[in-house]
Amino acid sequence: MQVQDKTVVSFRFKLFNQAGELVDESGEQPLLYLVGQHGMLPGLAKSFLEKSKGDSYSLDLSAEEGFGERKADSAQRVSRNKIFPKTKLSPGQDVVWDSPEGQIQVTVIKSGLKMVDIDTNHPLAGEPVRFDVEITDVRVASDDEVAHGHAHGAGGHEHH
To answer: Domain PPIase FKBP-type, which positions (predicted)?
Structure first.
């Protein structure tokens, strides 16, 4: 079966920055993605189409196709209790911010006792990146998955 709209693709990945350094990977447990839904980098989502179980490939993405271009007006001051991990923060450190739109990765600009200045650009924004991808499975999405707008893991839901 080939990946197409309303299929669930199981995949593993390794992500490399423009210097060729490994910066992230999925690990042993494959990730699940309901094709046609949001929540996936556009260039990566498009790359799944017409692939099949067992396919492995490398994908070079421009900044625009990957994590987007850097935005100059991305600095914000936020409450310290919305930043994870709850440890000492240093300028340049990548952390997770519990934003009004959900959790996103941000970079610390300056940290105070109660407030933190952050850069909401993804740390890889403005950079071309490379993904090494392995498709481990492809299946038709269930009616529940389509209705919920995301893939469910083994035994039911893999979300919320």
So the answer is: 4-89
Q: Among candidates 59, 66, 58, which has minimal Cα distance to 40?
A: 66
The model carries a pTM of: 0.80
CATH 2.40.10.330 fits 75-119, yes or no: yes
- Topology of domain 7-67+126-148 in CATH is Chitinase A; domain 3 (3.10.50)
Q: Residues 63, 28, 84, CA angle at the centre, nearest 5°?
A: 60
One-letter-per-residue 3-state SS of 49-71:
CCCECCCEEEEEECCCCCCCCCC
How far is residue 58 CA from its own chain's centroid? 17
Distance (Å, rounded) from C-alpha 89 to C-alpha 111? 6
Q: Residue type for 159, please?
A: H
